[in-house]
Write a structure and sequence with these properties.
- Helix content is 8%, strand content 52%.
- It contains 1 helix and 15 strands.
- The strands form 2 sheets. Strands 1, 2, 3, 4, 5, 6, 7, 8, 9, 10, 11, 14 and 15 form a 13-stranded mixed sheet that branches. It has a two-stranded antiparallel ribbon with strand order 12-13.
- The protein is globular and about 55 Å long.
- InterPro entries: Ependymin.
């Protein structure tokens, strides 16, 4: 029995040290399903939807196209973050808001000081996928992240994010998100996604209401 216990403890120790923080590719696109909720001025609002994320850390540009189903309506939102000009464009149902963007772009790497939580296995039988799950505070958004990525290639799988002060569509809102990644692909197919929409031309630049969601 003592030998068995020692063996199990050794396996646990090895599993911790076998997990190493990794980096997602610096240019990628991905679709995500999203579920979550917002809490603002005493009103709790659950929602669900899907996003298309285009991320380019080389040129410091991020585009997120969201379709959000709220309790009584559907919103089509595009968020364009240009970290070079320090501008964030939020286009909600065709109406554009421009804000200052004073935070750094989210780094694609799991931080070196992230806490390793576990190595879950997705799937069943011969169709399985090994992953590592990490917990850390995002320096860009200030959110607490729990992020699962594939063990061998650092492809994102699931991100749970909680930020009590994150903005959502221009309002200071407590936000709780879970994003499930799919159709992840390296590279960017069409860079027109980073073009500023005409509806944003000549819009006044507002002060940021908080840190970006992504």
């Amino acid at each position: 029995m003592w030998i068995l216990k020692e063996f199990l403890v050794s396996l646990m120790v090895l599993s911790v040290y076998a997990a190493t923080p990794c980096c997602i590719d610096r240019e990628f696109e991905a679709d995500t399903g999203v579920v979550g909720s917002t809490y603002r001025k005493g009103i709790f609002s659950p929602y669900e939807g899907h996003n298309m994320i285009t991320y380019d850390s080389h040129n410091k540009m991020v585009s997120v196209k969201l379709t959000i189903d709220g309790q009584a309506h559907r919103d089509h939102i595009q968020i364009l973050m240009d970290y070079n000009s320090k501008r964030e464009y939020i286009i909600t149902n065709g109406k554009c808001t421009v804000s200052e963007l004073n935070t750094p772009i989210t780094d694609p790497c799991i931080p070196a000081n992230a806490t390793y939580l576990r190595s879950p296995i997705y799937g069943y039988g011969s169709n399985t996928l090994e992953a590592d799950t990490w917990e850390y505070f995002s320096p860009a958004t200030g959110a607490l992240n729990r992020f699962s990525v594939t063990k061998d290639s650092c492809v994102p799988l699931v991100l749970a994010q909680y930020n009590p002060h994150a903005p959502f569509t221009g309002n200071l809102t407590q936000t709780d998100l879970v994003l499930i990644y799919n159709n992840f692909r390296i590279g960017i197919k069409d860079r027109k996604v980073f073009s500023v929409p005409e509806s944003c031309a000549n819009q006044p630049v507002q002060k940021p209401v908080g840190t970006p969601i992504f």
